[in-house]
Amino acid sequence: AGRARALMAQAKVEGFLTGMDRGRALAEAAVEATRQAGESLTQRARAALLRSIGQICWWQGDPYATVRYCQEALQFVPDELSPIAAEVLMTMATPHLYWRDLDTALRCAERGLEIAQRLQLNELLPMAYATLGNVLTRCGESSRAENCLRQAMDLSRGLGLETYAQVMAAG
Question: In 61-124, which residue ranges form alpha helices assigned H by DSSP?
Fold first, then answer.
């Protein structure tokens, strides 16, 4: 379990420093370590690691693997109302948006935001609003999109976190 976590952390760092091919290779090693960990790794931890490799696959340019790993991650989340479920759904929204599957992207983004709101996950709300705002922009719902993006920026500033969400929302 510890090896899986360490490999995933290394995958993210090396992916950005040396290239996503190396990051993905390390992330795949982390997933293998996850499978070998057996019961010493919680379901939620498995879901988080699978979401991480999904994110790395997106950064590498493989949206199909992103969705595949995220769907697998959702199978390990013990209940739908969990922070990891919200993160997985937000991660899945982007490839569907890329494919112009606006209905699925919208469902993922709205559900991710709904979970973040219900669980009062303040640290996830800026990204949830930014994700939904970006989807709504592509759906042609400009007014609703602008409202979401402004909320993302305001929450980010107010909480003093999520600079990335600020940039995404401002863009």
Answer: 63-76, 83-98, 102-118
